[in-house]
Amino acid sequence: MRKGQLDEMQRQIRDRIGNQMFILMSYLLLLDIGLYGFGFRWLSYPMNVFVIMIGCMCYYLARIIWQGAYAGPNAKRTGLKVVIINTVTALIAALIVWFVNNHYPAASPDDSNGAMVLFIFGGVALIIISVVSLCRRRNNKGQDD
Amino acid sequence: MVGKNLSLKSARAAKDMSQKELADVVGVTRQTINAIESGDYNPSINLCIAICKALGKTLNDLFWEDDDNA
Fold it and tell me: Which helix (H) or strand (E) holds A27?
């Protein structure tokens, strides 16, 4: 994610979003100070500041990805097929682990949460793939790469 | 925000280039070319010149809007 590799429109988008996030974070921190002054503590210090900063950072990243300003024109694209194959493999493995745990308890004496972890991994990967393809379709405006 | 740049689109089509091919030649993303053609983005003069060189046109041909070509 080197800024120098972005083209001029991407840099402009990223600068604009970055400025907005900076202002938003400043207002949120001021609001937090104000709430603290009135005696309202929604989180203990320094977790409140940390949560505000992480929240703004996540929002910043989500917006630059949504507007296609995360990776530059020379960025190598990860093969979507590889990601999908990995996800499907994880889901199948999760099903196998779940099946073995429930039908052959003697075969798996340690009751680990492996199936749940694999399910969550596969689910999150599917969500990410959907969001990325949605962003790409939106940014391409109906035209293929 | 300006209107659609139909001159750029037709010049690109005349050279039988896709947006991706033109973007690769001038070193930007395809989305940037798309935004320029649809009038969502005003390119810098350097990018305008690069596009003109890639398409063999002048700045007037592609980026000057007069009353007839507005």
Answer: helix A8-37
Question: Which two tokens mark B54?
Answer: 């890639």
As for the ipTM of the complex, it is: 0.83
- Burial code of A50-65, b = ≥16 C-beta within 10 A, e = fewer? eebeeebeeebeebbe
For tokens 């940037």, what's the residue? B32
Chain A CB contacts of B32 under 8 Å are 7-10, 73
Q: What is the pLDDT of residues B4-49, one digit of tens each?
A: 888 999 999 999 999 999 999 999 999 999 999 999 999 999 999 9
pLDDT for the residue numbered A107: 59
Tell me which residues of chain B have a C-beta less than 8 Å from any C-beta of chain A: 19-20, 23-24, 27-32, 34-35, 38, 41, 43-44, 47
Provide the pLDDT for residue A1.
Answer: 45
Query: How far apart (Å, rounded) are the C-alpha atoms in residues A82 and A92?
Result: 15
pTM (two decimals): 0.66
Q: Which one of A7, A10, A143 has the shortest CB-CB distance to B34? A: A143
